[in-house]
């Protein structure tokens, strides 16, 4: 449409004159809203903007139109369509009822979008052409030209000879138009080796209403969903419910019998599902969101003519770019094994595994008890207990207070600045080298070391291993943990043994283990080609410090608190028992690495580190 045109000469007096009865040739009589007969001068071959402006001005003066030229009726028809006024447009045709039905159907099918129209020209015998443009969204435009005829119907004036094709080429009385978005072939979510993890699949919703007999429905569903019972269906108290959603393999044996039952409706849908139904990981939801983003980005659009039988033919639109498969960093074999070793534990238990050289997340597994509490592997914050001694020892080595061979006391208990610290079961090693105190997890040794450190020493050392850094990782929502500054000696003692205000997630401690193995903190990544952004980039701990830690963590396995794993070559680790609540309960931890695989195992309320160590052994022995 062209710009609006101002007509100062069409003032109140002029409009009133236009609505006053006149006589003479070259004019046609019209009836205003008051019922008086008026005459309007002929408008000859005016562009649509002029026609619409004049029409609007006269309408404001109370005039109703009985158009006296083809150009006039076409202009009014175009104006009504642009305004979305179905009734007004239909009344300007030779078949208002049929026109209203068709126009209304087109507007509804095209999502309520209003078209832009412009008179392209007129010809002999009342013929005309219209340029029509629909704007659905940015870059989604449909433009075309239609043609039609206007008839002089005597006292009624000129009218558009009704033909649905005047709205869009090829439109007939038996068809309408529909706008829809389109998507390309659904991509797959793959593991590091290209094996599918998530794929779009067809499922069937089994809907049950008040007329269904639960006693008849439940036995059929129980073959695929044992938790569905007649009692659970009856609990809906007659309200329509989706009893269960079944995969194709599950619905196939019972589909015919279910469909025959009164009150049962089967509805098929497509959903993104795990290829292996047993697979369950907190990272799957994030991968699903990335998959959906890819599908959304691949969206195209189409305008279709739809026949009464539902058949459709595309008349406009464009396909979007195909969505690529998502290749995740997960190792499907390791993930499956991790879930299997956690499954028997009654307490919430998780495993997070990261590749130190690249930061690739290889597995994030939780058992059913952990799933009930949410994605605790990634965002659950707990006291890390003695696994934090990796940080404490790193801070002490960097401060120059000790070396791995420095002889330090490891009494069963110690009163440090008024805070009494015991070892586990109050074991007493006496004076031993620092590496031995580390391997046997001497609380008293670590508490004494931390007292002499600056308030920020443990905070800074934790950041060097990624603990306290916030990562924005596509497909992952994570929290690493926090080691606040310890201003008082008592706070430093508590922090040194991973208690007090120090917290860590299993993901955070896996990152600590990966940092020690690699020598610096790798950026975690879940999907290849989707880089992570960190809120800060702390420097790495000195190479000699991380090398010393690896040696001490190896001694922990060969002769210390994780010696049940001494048969595993190259394994390094650190056990942890962390009190929580009123101190009567304790979580169990084991963090470490073997080759290019770092991990953290956490077992809530385990009482000791032994269950976590056992889980790690079963995972690594495979």
Automatic annotation (TrEMBL):
Organism the protein comes from: Rhodococcus aetherivorans
Any one Gene Ontology molecular-function term assigned to this protein's record: glycosyltransferase activity
Organism superkingdom: Bacteria
Source species taxonomy: Bacteria, Bacillati, Actinomycetota, Actinomycetes, Mycobacteriales
Entry keywords, A to Z: Cell cycle, Cell division, Glycosyltransferase, Transferase
Single GO BP term: cell division
EC number, as in UniProt: 2.4.1.129
Protein name: Cell division protein FtsI
Transmembrane segments: none
Xref: Gene3D superfamilies: DD-peptidase/beta-lactamase superfamily
